[in-house]
Structure formats: C-alpha cells, structure tokens
Amino acid sequence: MTKAKYLECLDAALAVSEEMVGAAKDEDWQRLVELETKRHDLIRSAFAKPIARSDGDNVAAVVGRIQAINQSLMALGNQGREKLASALNRMATGRRALSAYAGATRS
Questions:
Q1: What residues have CB less than 8 Å from 27, skipping those under 6 apart?
Q2: pLDDT per residue over 46-89, tens digit each?
Q3: pTM score, two decimals?
Q4: 101 phi, psi to nearest 5 deg
C-alpha cells in the first residue's frame, strides 16, 4: 500500500519545518521566509482534497508536531527581534554620544 499524497505532503512540510528551526537558529531570516513559502505550498497541497477518515490520527499527529515547531519558531523570531532592537538601540546611543562629543569639541 502506498502512502497517501496528503501524508507525503505533510511529512515533507514537517521536514521543512525542522529546516526552518535551523534557519532561525542561524538567524538566516531570508532562508526562513523561503522555507515558509515552501511549507505553505506543501500544506495547501495536503489539504486540497478530503482526508481519509482512516488517516485522521496520523494527519492530526503531524499537524500537531508542525504546530509545536511553530511555537519554537515564534520564540526564536521574538529572540531575533529583541536582539536586533538591542543592537539598533546601541547604535542610536553610540550615534548620540558621537554627536555630543563632536558638539563639545567645536565649542
């Protein structure tokens, strides 16, 4: 018996989700966006046709794993955003200090 196409798509979406975690940990946000697009297409394909009742538990398990990975991705995204905000804040502080120093040396 061959695996249903929707299960193949969901398994592929799960694998892509795991790749997304690696991209997020590497702070490769461009790659993360590319992978998310790929995963979206796989999930859309998986649910393009009705799911067999007999596969319901398998589908639910894979979808649950994808959702758990999404939670991790959201946390990693928030960490990345906070890291970027902190770096921008330090740059702004440095710019203000440089401006103040430049103003003091002109006096």
A1: 80, 83
A2: 999 999 999 999 999 999 999 999 999 999 999 988 887 777 77
A3: 0.76
A4: -65, -45
* Residue ranges covered by each domain of the chain: 5-106
Encoded tokens for 16:
């892509």
Residue 1 pLDDT grade (very low, low, confident, very high; cuts 50, 70, 90): very low
Classified by CATH at the fold level, domain 5-106 comes out as: Methane Monooxygenase Hydroxylase; Chain G, domain 1 (1.20.58)
- Per DSSP, the residues of 10-61 read HHHHHHHHHHHHHHHHTT-HHHHHHHHHHHHHHHHHHTSSPPPGGGHHHHHH
Question: What is the Rg, in whole angstroms, of the alpha carbon atoms belonging to the chain?
Answer: 22
* b/e map 46-55, b = 16+ CB within 10 Å: beeeebeeee
- Give the integer Cα–Cα distance in Å for 39 and 41: 5
Nearest-CA neighbor of 14 among 33, 34, 50, 42? 42
